[in-house]
Amino acid sequence: MSDGRVINFGAGPSALPTDVLEEANKGLLNFQGTGIGIAEISHRSKEFTAFLNEAESHIRTLLEVPSTHKILFTQGGGSGQFSAVVLNLLARHRLLHPQLKDEERVMDYVVTGSWSKKAMQEAGRLGGGRVNIAADARRYSNDGKAFNSVPPHDDYAFSADPALIYYCENETVDGVQFSDDLSSPASFPFEKLTQGALLPLVADYSSSFLSRPIPRLADHAVVFAGAQKNLGPAGLTILIVRQDCIVDVDAAAKLGATPVPITLSYKTLADHSSLYNTPSVLPIYIAGLVLRKMSDGGGLQVYAQSNRQKFEKIVAALKNGEEKDVFKAKVKDGSVSWMNIVFDVPGEGRQQKFLDGADKRGMKGLAGHRSVGGVRVSLYNAITQQDTDKLVGYMNEFVADTV
Ligand SMILES: Cc1ncc(COP(=O)(O)O)c(C=O)c1O
């Protein structure tokens, strides 16, 4: 391990594999023997475009992305996509149904946490369609305000022929995630969607991308993710877009749709193989090295299995603390995220004591999001079993010392 590095359990930007960072160090000075550093080289050089193509093919193989979908690289983060999916999919809907009034273009949002809520608010702000809350997880919490579970399948009310259907697979702040087991009541209710149609289904995978396979990937119109959790530095956003959702936004604007800024248009990105303008070369480089490591290391199932183990270890330590009234889980069983596990340490000053003790032992980034407080353990791909075991040891020790 490089000198002075601690274990970073932060929620994002977050830990990256040390060997990748060491390799990237070399590339910063001399990218693939070109004599030019990666932050200095032309994005149109044959070396960089080959690297970009390799990164894309790793994603296609790791996630088994079907040929019906394009993989695109862009910037603007998850928040940029809150806007871009609305504009592109409203343009698609306009081309399909030019006669409808704006209020007849419905955008279905499944609200399970603060990120899907933000995305929904952006859709309302942009206009051009009407927002419908297809399900709201807050209804199932005690105070009606907290997000602490995935709603039951019966609760979803999807619209007929909406412009988009939106969900956030893993809510990073609230620690709520849809189950990847489609027989679980906490899975996404794919069976309630119109079957056999090309649905405008959108998923924000920002904080779970490449942590495990994506259920029913082929049925999605758009899957997007900022890179800064499992994959690389902030500044790179990855899109997987079904080809029927890459539409001529200018033709839609002529029919009355909101004009789409050129860099947000999926068609611009696709027509220029993600190189319409200068991409985020350095984040792509580091993400590309991580992807290469994943492919060389046995593929996604290896990571999925390891992530499950890490999750189970922390949940067991949390349960031990709950039994002794030292910890209190915030999320209901079945909806707990593999990537971000959130809990409280009730009692005067105890939470700070827990965080300080972790800090002293070289474990940082464990404070919950400022909007909800508590503790948040983020277990992204770069967190090892050893890192997890160290935290588990500390959690158990803290419980034993407290009771
Ligand atoms: C699930 C999810 N969606 C969206 C975002 C927003 O991403 P960005 O900060 O890249 O705009 C985040 C950020 O943490 C996130 O966790």
TrEMBL record:
Cellular-component GO terms for this entry: cytoplasm
Cofactor(s) required, per the database record: pyridoxal 5'-phosphate
TM spans (from-to): none
Pathway(s) annotated for this protein in UniProt: Amino-acid biosynthesis; L-serine biosynthesis; L-serine from 3-phospho-D-glycerate: step 2/3
Keywords recorded for this protein, A-Z: Amino-acid biosynthesis, Aminotransferase, Pyridoxal phosphate, Serine biosynthesis, Transferase
Biological process according to GO: L-serine biosynthetic process
Its EC number(s): 2.6.1.52
Tagged with keyword Amino-acid biosynthesis: yes
Top-level taxon in the UniProt lineage: Eukaryota
GO MF entries: O-phospho-L-serine:2-oxoglutarate aminotransferase activity; pyridoxal phosphate binding
Catalytic activity: O-phospho-L-serine + 2-oxoglutarate = 3-phosphooxypyruvate + L-glutamate
A Pfam family annotated for this UniProt entry: Aminotran_5
Aminotransferase class V domain ranges (all copies): 7-391
Record family assignment: Belongs to the class-V pyridoxal-phosphate-dependent aminotransferase family. SerC subfamily.
Protein name: phosphoserine transaminase
Species for this entry: Neolentinus lepideus HHB14362 ss-1
